[in-house]
Amino acid sequence: MATLPKTMLAAVIRAWNEVHVEEVPAPQIGPNEVLCRVRACGICPTDLRIVSGAYYPHWPPALPFIYGHEWVAEVAAVGDGVTGFKVGDHVTGENHIGCRECRMCRAGRYNLCFRAEDGSQVLYGHNAPGAFCEYVTRPPLALHRIPDNVSFVDAVIIIQGSMILHGCNRVGILPGETVAISGPGLSGLLALQVARAKGATKIIMIGRGERLRVAADLGAHHVVDFTREDPAEAVQKLTGGLGADVGLECAGSPESLGPLTYAVRRGARVAMIGLNGKKQVPIVTDRIALDEVDLIGVRSGSGEYPAFISLMAAGKVSAAGLVTHTFPLEEITRGMETFRERKGNPIRVAITI
Ligand SMILES: [Zn+2]
Ligand SMILES: [Zn+2]
Prior knowledge:
7-stranded mixed β-sheet
């Protein structure tokens, strides 16, 4: 085995809103672990909140802390007992693999592990060291191989894309259906591509500004600017008064869900993908009840990584136009600023390492 590094470069939260890129001890590989040389890691809105201390003491439990959870790497070494991966493999990783014992894990729904929030389970980049650094170790169960035709930088969208695929699977998009998506951020723009891959033939994106143009470039059949027209009325008009078969709420703003429940038809399914920080959301429950609109929750994913990676490898989902900016690890503070202040209309900012 090649000599393994003793130290590495890492982005470390030293105090809230204070990130230092510094030399730290490199993780040591144990049996049944894979040492991964990180190549890219996306900056997620959750990272901005983690760095600000908004989730302390859950995420992270203490400082200093290495954050970052949308990572892609090359296998640098495998520990004793690892058979499924070899040095040089390109991989990405899930941040949570469940306890494998609770009722939901045993039902295959490890995204809903009963122990996910009590701190007893590792959530990499949240309560355990993340990947804005040169090396991470992970159990093979957390890893997925990426084919060579998907670049490291493009692959930072896999974590988010797997969640979107999970949502689109749960809501059951069928060939020939019309899908209305609210929120053309990374989630919505991925949802647009996944919906098309599933055979949706009319996709309507609701949002505003520059991102609607990105949605149109990515193949949205219609875009609706909610600052100019009533989104529910606009979608009704675009569907001949019927409404969309499926709604995907990806904006995570409290104003988004209500209109979406009127943009869909009777008997439609609506997935709630965006998070809004536990705010109350006004919706007309009689509409949900009397028109049998199914509201479906979506959290993370449970097993969709391989299928989403296949969608990327087959060119059905592209990161083009989604990973808009890259910065080297040394400039992570500038990358965070670019993302936070939306300088140059970023959708996803990736850190290369
Ligand atoms: Zn994230
Ligand atoms: Zn569990």
